[in-house]
Write a structure and sequence with these properties.
The structure holds two protein chains of two kinds. Chain A has ten helices and no strands. Chain A is mainly α. In chain B, helix 3 (110-117) runs antiparallel to helix 4. In chain B, 46% of the residues are buried. The chains are: A mainly alpha, B alpha+beta.
């Protein structure tokens, strides 16, 4: 029943899901921290942080990919550091595809979580502190439960974005079958050869289905934030 | 128990400069909006940091600007009941109540709190399903169960209608009398203060203008301007003698008997009745054949002319002091002067139910 996609196409779908999952899982803690800092923090450089986070949204993806190559390539300062410290290589590996996808999806994730945090009344956190709760406990027991739907919504948006990431990925890690050839790269590859439209169309439909499901799920969750924070 | 507050803060066009001490009981922090009440209570709780000053509770320094001491909110050991209950919407009532219990040992048990506040039937509900009065009772319970050394209450009744206020006032009286917990109660309602307070600190434009025992402050004609002439009134303490068949309750007060519409208090219990100055009439002779039931022998302590046509007369009635507001013309006609003995007349129906509380 799985033969409606070729092994090559299945490989692309699996790889895309794998890459997107890792991208979201690894960026989520940072996403929550940055969103909290932007929503509640009062520090010098807040606007700079805000700009940095949103940069991938406005830069041409090719530029983002190239910057990643410079920084996270084997010769890049951060890339070399990661290889020395953790033995993790990004260049031309699926890990690099996940990094590129995570960076590109980060602004969407932060935006959704930040909106959820801003919807939480700081007076509730203040009340928790007067009851003797230390700040970390207040975050875990009051803030976090109230923004959980927002975090899930942000994660889903980021997942959908990561699934579809193309420009930065192909610039950074190229399109290696089974390693970095995700659904968009595969579609692009099919369209480069005559008669590939039909094969591309199947993956287009898969992509479309995943994105729609993700968008609807994130809408539903976003709706629940408001209800939860209102307490109804 | 002792609390000592000395704080200064400069706002735009407004200087806060507040010093006072309290020793247990329910201390009312009175003032009109903008007088600085909430700023003071927030400084106590640690959610507002004043420019300069010192706050000490039971010998523990909570804030001291010269030594840069500023105990963080969660280590201050104060329960805070906000005007807008601020219950956690994602937790049930029972979970809300238990929230602070893990950090400090409470002297009162959860069962006692639930019983005292009458919230046993609400435990499984969510805050969104509670009425305003129920929310506020749960918020009080939550603060109590966090084991505070003192309870701060910021106009806990201000957002409620009169019926809800009447529901909660008896619980606040029980809290004052049974929880053995000092309370700092912010309010701009002289009626609430008259009913609840054991001592009063009055603020005006960021400064303390009066401080002292509630019965002294409320019966002081000089303080009337602070509290508002319309609402001025003092307290009479009495003992319930009997409930009569015609719907009246008989009280023994220092100067005689007081007949009031039925009071929900057992015979022999003590009550405090807030008598509004404008409801008290004066007569030089013991009046006969009048409809007012309450005629109490009184001695004039002082007479204070107001800016308008009114005058405020302070009267000694047994051990209590009350106020009577009459016109300057009547004061002149009756030749009211200190030391004079006369009769204070009070209509039974003039005393509002919410002005009668536990003594």
């Amino acid at each position: 029943m799985m033969d409606w996609l070729t092994p090559e196409e299945w490989s692309a779908v699996r790889l895309s899901l794998w890459v997107a999952l890792w991208a979201v899982a690894c960026s989520l803690p940072f996403g929550v921290a940055v969103a909290y800092a932007l929503a509640r923090g009062r520090f010098v450089g807040r606007q700079v942080l805000n700009g940095l986070v949103h940069l991938p949204l406005v830069l041409p993806p090719v530029v983002t990919g190239y910057i990643l190559l410079l920084g996270f390539g084997r010769q890049g300062p951060i890339g070399a550091l990661f290889e020395d410290l953790f033995g993790v290589v990004f260049a031309f590996r699926w890990t690099g595809a996940a990094l590129a996808a995570g960076v590109m999806a980060f602004p969407l994730m932060v935006r959704a979580i930040r909106l959820a945090i801003e919807a939480v009344d700081p007076k509730l956190e203040q009340a928790a502190r007067t009851l003797g709760a230390p700040p970390v406990w207040v975050f875990l027991t009051v803030t976090l439960p109230l923004i959980l739907p927002g975090i899930l919504g942000g994660a889903i948006m980021a997942f959908a974005k990561a699934m579809g990431e193309f420009g930065a990925t192909i610039t950074f890690v190229s399109s290696i079958p089974g390693e970095t050839r995700t659904i968009p790269s595969t579609i692009y590859g099919f369209l480069q050869v005559p008669g590939g439209e039909a094969r591309a169309l199947r993956l287009v439909l898969v992509s479309l289905a995943i994105s729609m499901v993700a968008l609807i799920a994130s809408e539903i969750l976003a709706h629940r934030i408001a209800k939860r924070v209102r307490g109804t | 128990m002792s609390l000592s507050v000395d704080i200064h803060h400069q706002f735009d066009g407004f200087d806060l400069d507040v010093q006072f001490q309290t020793e247990g009981g329910l201390t009312a922090l009175f003032g009109r909006s903008g007088a600085g009440k909430t700023t003071v209570i927030n400084a106590l709780a640690g959610v507002f940091r004043p420019d300069r000053g010192r706050i000490e509770m039971n010998g523990r320094t909570l804030f001291d600007s010269p030594t840069r001491t500023n105990v963080p909110v969660h280590k201050r050991g104060l329960g805070y009941v906000f005007q807008d209950a601020r219950l956690f919407p994602h937790l049930s009532v029972a979970q809300n109540l238990k929230y602070g219990a893990r950090f400090r040992k409470s002297r009162v048990s959860g069962d006692q709190v639930v019983e005292m506040l009458g919230i046993g039937h609400l435990l499984d509900r969510r805050p969104a399903d509670l009425s305003g009065g129920e929310k506020q009772r749960v918020a009080i319970g939550r603060a109590l169960m966090s084991g505070p050394e003192m309870l701060l209450m910021d106009e806990p009744l201000a957002a409620l209608d009169q019926a809800r206020k009447d529901d909660i006032l008896p619980y606040l009286e029980r809290l004052r009398d049974e929880a053995d917990l000092p309370i700092l109660y912010v309010s701009h309602s002289i009626a609430e203060i008259g009913r609840l307070a054991t001592s009063v600190v009055a603020l005006e434009h960021g400064r303390v203008v009066r401080a002292g025992a509630a019965e002294d402050i409320l019966s002081d004609p000089d303080a009337v301007a602070t509290f508002g002439v319309q609402d001025a009134g003092a307290m009479l303490r009495g003992r319930v003698v009997a409930h009569h068949d015609d719907g009246l309750t008989e009280l023994a007060v220092g100067g005689g008997q007081l007949w009031l519409p039925r009071i929900m208090a057992p015979v022999d219990s003590t009550v405090r009745v807030r008598v509004e100055a404008r409801d008290v009439m004066l007569s030089l002779q013991q009046p006969a054949d009048i409809s007012a039931l309450n005629v109490l022998p009184a001695t004039v302590v002082s007479l204070r002319d107001g800016d308008g046509p009114g005058a405020m007369v302070q009267l000694q009635v047994g051990p209590d002091r009350i106020l009577a507001r009459i016109t300057g013309r009547s004061a002149k006609a009756l030749n009211i002067r200190a030391g004079q003995t006369l009769f204070a007349v009070l209509k039974s129906v003039a005393v509002a139910k919410q002005d009668i509380g536990r003594g």
